[in-house]
Design a protein that fits this description.
With 136 residues, the chain is α+β, with helices and mostly antiparallel strands. The chain folds into two domains: 5-79, 2-Layer Sandwich (Alpha-Beta Plaits); 87-134. It is 28% helix and 22% strand. The strands form two sheets. A five-stranded mixed β-sheet has the order 3-4-2-1-5, with helices on one face. It has a three-stranded antiparallel β-sheet with strand order 6-8-7. The radius of gyration is 17 Å and the shape is elongated.
């Protein structure tokens, strides 16, 4: 059974959301204008714009969400949601580490740790990601 909410961009350019069956989730989804249910592939789609994405993220705040990279540069949306994405970019990892230990950690510091095998990197379509649990 799926426990995560997957948000991505469909082939037609619309925002797609795949989520586990839950009557509460369905009620929430139906509050967003322009929603469509695709029964053949079991996902919802929405008009592709920043306001719609922000609304979706707010609806599922605190839930385990996987947000497709094509929809991120979403730095401003991170303040609206607790996207349970433990994967961070090098820049995000440096900011998280700075907050976590109370000392300045630069992206160069994170790159050094990756280069010398102190933390594991995850490749995602050419993007280097770090699991924040490896930074603890």
């Amino acid at each position: 059974m799926k426990t995560e909410i997957w948000i991505s961009k469909g082939d037609d350019g619309r925002i797609t959301v795949t989520l586990p069956y839950n009557p509460t989730y369905i009620s929430k989804v139906k509050t967003i204008k322009g929603y469509r249910w695709h029964p053949e592939n079991k996902y919802w789609s929405f008009p592709s714009d920043d306001d719609t994405l922000k609304k979706i993220l707010l609806l599922f705040r605190g839930k385990k969400i996987r947000l497709d990279r094509s929809l991120q540069p979403l730095d401003e949306f991170e303040k609206y949601t607790n996207v349970n994405n433990d994967l961070l970019t090098i820049k995000q990892a440096s900011e998280w580490a700075t907050d976590h230990i109370g000392k300045r950690v630069t992206p160069s510091n994170i790159s050094y740790l990756i280069q010398y095998g102190r933390i594991r990197k995850i490749n995602n379509n050419g993007n280097t990601l770090i699991d924040k649990h490896n930074l603890s």
